[in-house]
Every structure is written in structure tokens, then in C-alpha cells.
Amino acid sequence: MSRRVTTTLSAAALACALVLSGCGEESAPSANTSAALSAITVEGTDAKTAPTVKVDAPVTVTKTESKVLTEGTGEAITKDDLVSIQAIILNGTDGKQAHSTWETGPVGLDLGAQDLFGSFKSQLPGKKIGSRVLITSTPADAFGEQGNPDLAMKADDPVVFVVDVVGATKVLAQAEGTAVPPKAGLPTVTMNEGKPATITVPKGAKAPAKTVVQPLITGKGAEVKAGQTVRVAYTGALLKDGSVFDSSASRPEQPYFDFAAGQGQVISGWDKSIVGQKVGSRLLLVIPPAEGYGEAGSPPKIAGTDTLVFVVDILAAY
User: N or C: which terminus of the chain carries fewer CB neighbours within 10 A?
Assistant: First the structure.
């Protein structure tokens, strides 16, 4: 989503660490256990508990490889899925743990994203949901030439990942489900394929004191839970004149927006409205300034007194 709609401009540091790729080569999965994989010992099989990982450092990784430690019983994930994972990251040079999502909660990744680690893009597709996977990655398939100072990773450090595949989902192209007749007096919406939606505000429309949530389509997917990464498509307009100030459709190279639901990464009117809704839903949101951008607004298009109108398609949650 654009700067006008988010209240937090950057994602969590860990999520960034897992998706900022060095753009290295994507090695094919290996069926054999290499010396690098053999240098890693992983103890623990309980999916609810972080495993204990020991590295016989330094590890030499000439090719990114993986090994399934515990095979899950779910469906195999595909190269374009959105996945939810738990992961432990270790430095292959000194064997030290750099980070663990077991301390912060699962992370959502888009396997189809161009900037995702090459090691994840090559090694995770084909693995079943519920699996625990060991990955030994070349520097190029992980943090690349820049390394990651925040995780004490230098440019030439190989990386060890122990990944639990918690879940996976596919992305809807648009909202789909059961249409809901809109209530009289609310703005109406006309969807325009590949373009921002048209939002028409009726004459005399009054700004609500609290956010109004009007489903236009009730989806048939799972309910969005707080903390999940949600993918949406949206258009935002001003209640006073219906003028569009932002739309994901205006960015054809990435006509969607991902954010962590209920975590304060977006305006509160969104956070309060989207948690608990079903994937596939289309929502009409009318958001007063107090639950939008407050008295400061978001210049130059949004004043501190502006009530906002959004149409939001919930395409996935992972």
C-alpha cells in the first residue's frame, strides 16, 4: 500500500530479512545428503516447540540444498503459493543463531516474489505443509553481497535455515463469494478491471463517528486472524467528493498490498475492520478521521477533517 494509507512504512525487520534477496542462483533441490547438510544436527520434532540446532562450523556451502527432517501430511506447496513459516536462522561460518521466529511468531512469505531468497524459492516448493526442512544456503541465495549487519551476517557467510511449513494458500484474483445488497445511504462502488474502482458518494452523505463496515461480497475462505499477513486490493476515495486518492490498481507491476493484520501497520479503521472477515470478501469501509489519519491528515490529498471511503478485496491471508 502507498505511503498515504500505511501508518508504518516498513515491514517488521525480520520479515524484511527473509525476503530481501541477494538475487543469486536458485539451486535445484538435492536428493542426497551433502557434507554441509550433514554438519547440522537438529533435535526436536514437536511442531509447537522450537528445535535445537547445532552447527559443526564452519560449514562450506557450494550449492544450496535441503533435507526434509519431518514430512508433513498436508498438500505440497507450489512455486507461487503464499506460505506461513517458522524459521531459525544460523550463521554457517560460526554456527551462531541469528534469529528465530519462534520468539516473534510465524512469518508470511510470497514464494512468487522476485525479491525472495533464492534458497526459499528453490527449496520450499514441493514440500508438504507441516514439514520441517533443513536448508543450507550459499550467501548468494540468501543475503547476497550486502550481507545483513542486523543479523551479524557478512557477505561471504553461508546461511543455515530450519523451516517449519505452517501453512500455504493461493491468491484470489478478486473477491468471490456471496453478494450482499448494500444499505441505502452508503457510497456505491463500481469495479473497473485493471483500474481503480469508481466510488460514488450520495448527496448529503454524513460522516460517521465510527468506522462503518459494509460487506459487498461475503467470502467463503477462512477468517482473517490478527497477526496474519493479509493480501488485499483496494481503492480509497474521499467522502466529501468521491475523488480517488490511492488505489492498488494504479500500480500494475504489483496491484495488491500485503500487511500484518491487527498489528498497527495500517490505519486503525483497517485493522479493526479486516480482522475476522473471510478471505474472498469485498468490504466497503467508511472511516472517520480519528480512525484514519487523525488531525494531521496525509497531505497533499487528505486533510485532517477528511472521512475516507475504501473498497477492499481480501485476496489471501497467510
Answer: N
Cell numbers at residue 26, please? 536458485
Name, in order, each residue with C-beta under 8 angstroms of 296's C-beta and a sequence gap of 6 or more. Answer: 304
Q: Mind listing the pLDDT tens digit for each residue in 31-74?
A: 456 899 999 999 998 888 999 999 999 999 999 999 999 999 99
The secondary structure of residue 150, as a DSSP letter, is G
pLDDT at 23 over 70: no
Maximum alpha-carbon separation in the chain = 72
- Alpha-helical (H) ranges within the chain are 13-19, 35-38, 118-123, 268-274
| Residue 223: Cβ within 10 Å count | 13
Contact 73, 82 (CB under 8 A): no
How many other C-beta atoms lie within 10 A of the C-beta of residue 104? 13
Cα dihedral across residues 42, 169, 158, 96: positive or negative: negative
Closest Cα to residue 122, out of 28, 7, 249, 223? 28
Cell of 146: 550486502
In the 8-state DSSP scheme, what is residue 74? Answer: S
On the question of pLDDT at 15 being above 60, the answer is: no
Angle at alpha carbon of residue 66, lines to 84 and 126, rounded to 5°: 55
Look up residue 256 and give its three cell numbers: 495488491
- CA nearest to 89, candidates 29, 7, 153, 44: 153
The rounded mean pLDDT for the chain is: 90
pTM: 0.76
How many other C-beta atoms can be found within 10 angstroms of the C-beta atom of residue 294?
A: 13
Q: How many residues are given for the chain? A: 318
Question: What are the beta bridge partners of residue 272?
Answer: none
State the cell numbers at 303.
486533510
